[in-house]
Amino acid sequence: MTNIRHNWTKEEILTIYNKPFMELLYEAATVHRQHHDPNTVQVSTLLSIKTGGCPEDCGYCPQAARYHTNVEGNDLMSVQQVKAQALRAKSTGSSRVCMGAAWRNVKDGAEFDQVLEMVRTINKLEMEVCCTLGMITENQAHRLAEAGLYAYNHNLDSSEEYYKEVISTRGYEDRLQTIDNVRKTNVTVCSGGIIGMGEKIEDRAGMLVALSTLNPQPESVPINALVAVEGTPLADEKPVEIWDMIRMVATARIVMPETQVRLSAGRTQMSREGQAMCFFAGANSIFAGDKLLTTPNPDVNEDLKMFEALGLNPQKPFTKKVQPQTVEAAESQFQALGEKPKWTRPEHKIERNEVAKQQSKILK
Ligand code: SF4
């Protein structure tokens, strides 16, 4: 019988994170084997369906309109374009397509209707569909669920305390509210964060407290290592040490035994050996494709070679949960309500974000 704890404290999680490395690795690998097939790794393809021009100020993100980066903005992709990319991803072993749009929150209207059509189309390809579209209301979550959405991604990014050092245009409580809205449907939750943003180990533990005390715990937890992009406020942060990544994965595995822990951004900075240790420590999902939204990612062929060398098999779609049924738009019970939810805007000043914004004005 599974005994999932939802009352982890920061002290307990810090104790796990700081264990002697070999002990931590052994414990995490043991928990991993009790709950998962250690030779199976779920593969997701992340697709940027609407790139750049985002009004938020996330300090790590090259898609924020206020920073000067090399990201070229694109309007929302067509359903046909998305379908073609999904078929390509399927042919190279991806079981899931995750569609990301650089929006603050979802607005009812033609663009959201188009995204719903994308969800219907990919679900009919027998692939798991995930979306990451910013904050959503309960009604919007229901509409996505009806279309056949399998997962909704909404990262907590860091601890509640450190979040305020990275983002000023939206609040932590809105992140939690969106996750709660998703939980009112049968869509699974994908939520994780980023390490290497200048946070303390306590913040990493704080993020794992926030995630592991959710009830139910998220079905997927992506662990990203910051990819420092020129022009963003976090451009000068040092690359994450592989040991930190392994410790983070192992700790996430121990406190969230049934969750799929995903190695996400930052894999290009990791050797194959480093990634193998992450898999041993409990990571059992990756993002595939040569780009993660806008930042580089290992080539698909490289990943296939790594899987072969390690004897890993891609997880089949709907292994963990049955495929949702798609309800066509005409039969939908949930219609657009044209809601105008009041998502928060703390708007506190973050010095490095201000500096990057000023710098951007000069360069533009
Ligand atoms: S992380 Fe998302 S919300 Fe934040 S700036 Fe980038 S695209 Fe916008």
From TrEMBL:
[4Fe-4S] cluster binds at residues 54, 58, 61. Its EC number is 2.8.1.6. Pathway: Cofactor biosynthesis; biotin biosynthesis; biotin from 7,8-diaminononanoate: step 2/2. CDD domains: Radical_SAM (cd01335). InterPro entries: Aldolase_TIM, BATS_dom, Biotin_synth/BioAB, Biotin_synthase, Elp3/MiaA/NifB-like_rSAM, rSAM, rSAM_sf. Pfam families: BATS, Radical_SAM. Residues 341-364 are annotated as: Disordered. Keywords: 2Fe-2S, 4Fe-4S, Biotin biosynthesis, Iron, Iron-sulfur, Metal-binding, S-adenosyl-L-methionine, Transferase. Binds 1 [4Fe-4S] cluster. The cluster is coordinated with 3 cysteines and an exchangeable S-adenosyl-L-methionine. Binds 1 [2Fe-2S] cluster. The cluster is coordinated with 3 cysteines and 1 arginine. Residues 39-267 form the Radical SAM core domain. Residues 341-355 have a biased composition (Basic and acidic residues). [2Fe-2S] cluster binds at residues 98, 130, 190, 262. Its cofactor is [4Fe-4S] cluster; [2Fe-2S] cluster. Transmembrane segments: none annotated. GO terms for biological process: biotin biosynthetic process. NCBIfam families: bioB (TIGR00433). Homodimer. Belongs to the radical SAM superfamily. Biotin synthase family. Catalyzes the conversion of dethiobiotin (DTB) to biotin by the insertion of a sulfur atom into dethiobiotin via a radical-based mechanism. This is Biotin synthase. It comes from Gelidibacter salicanalis. The lineage of its organism: Bacteria, Pseudomonadati, Bacteroidota, Flavobacteriia, Flavobacteriales. The gene is bioB.
